[in-house]
Amino acid sequence: MTAHTTTDETAARACMASLVRSLAENKAALGRRYAEWAVSAPTLESAVAAAAMAQDELGHARATYPVLKALGAESAEDGLEGGGHPLALLDDELADWAAFIAANLVVDGVLTTFVSACVDSAVAQLAQRARKILQEEGSHRVHGEAWARRLCRAGNDQREAFVGRLQDTWAEAGRWVGPSDDAGFRAALNAGMVKHDPAFQREQVRDWLVGLLAAEGAMLTLEEFDDWGRWDAATRRWSP
Question: Is 81 among the domain residues?
């Protein structure tokens, strides 16, 4: 094994450990935010869905932390106790139902897109958990899409407020997976630990959401980022 290979492997493992830890922390935080709406959602059906999604996300977080050991990283489950460094928008309660649905679509969408890119990961433990998580995420997407259509049809004011929430959420969550030129991510790609680079993953989420709203006559613009000055590579967190 050459020194170059060793360096690349170290960079790949460090990058994937950062992503996996942050994935678990954000899923734990998302679960708490979902749970807070389980008693105040606008319909009984959505209250039940919020509670179920909260349980799913907390379960995903608990199942994800052990993957860190396979990457040679410490596996302290800080997020399950309310710690860690999730996205800033998950630090506090989601302000309104439009913010809840924006998190349901954008945050959950970004995380799930990364998970989908790991179903054939060379890290066997990650691949196994990724397949299990994806089995449960389908209902989250159905819920978010249904409410997106409903909010777009509710009238100009609610539609515009919802579009604003989506754009604000994207500004943080869209950066989560990192810049496309990240050397560690490139090493992880080359090692088969993850499939699809950050730009491609963002494009998948962007195309889905823009198309979803366009079908309802709403215009949504989700930018590709060139400003990474306030993004912390260690926590994968952008400071608004």
Answer: no
